[in-house]
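Researcher: If only I could read backbone structure tokens as easily as an amino acid sequence. Walk me, if you will, through where the backbone shape changes along the chain. I have put the entry right below:
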Amino acid sequence: MSLNQRMKGLSLKIGPLGENDRLLTILSEENGISRLAIPGARKPKSRLGATSPFNFLDLHIVGKKNLRRVTQIKILKSYGNLGKNIETLSAAQAISELIMIMVGNEDPQKDLLKLVLIHLNRLNDLHKTEFDSLEALAISVQSCVHLLALGGYCLPLQNCCHSGARLIPPIGEWNWKCSFIPEEGFAIGKIVNSSSELNPSELALLQRLLLEKVPFHSNGKLLGPKNVWLKLLRIVETWIETHLQKKITSLQMMREVIISNDLNTK
């Protein structure tokens, strides 16, 4: 590591360090997760004190080993709209939590930063028009599906985990079921003690989340009702808890907020 370095990355977390400094956790293409000291950032009127989570930054860093120091910060983009609603903030924080579980310190991650910025842009842009909490939920679920796939923990949505047969949902055959088994994947049929069951439309929607964009009808409405998206959210949560041995608290918050909003509108 050179004595002087420039780094572009996304701030994931800002915390106190000592009496006057801050500790920045940042995601970059070159280094994966890095933790950097920002000297004097907690002092009044510090020129380095304006950094907050979910800023895309250009940094000048000094130091070779241990805790390197930030000497210059330029904010390239601020995702300030994320904090306008608890749904978008929870979705963004879930992305941050999942990254910090999967990515090691100073471990380069090709394409990860680009993927994260795509989803943050989508969440941030929800506030440019009439806000839709259901779309925020859908983006949150898809962002986790994409991050898990890139990190090597992809939901096994192509083949039955018991028979090996292709998982091809027969749309319209409502008696057909697919069972979600957290330790194994998805099995055709009703399986005793499975975590949940999906009908053909629900499985097809979950499979479409591996594609680039959130799925919409041709009329511009989001595919799938709220209860289905909440079911898919729970499947993602359970998969993470089972295979990464961690709970994403922000996903739990997302679910509770969505359910609470429904209760308040009744």
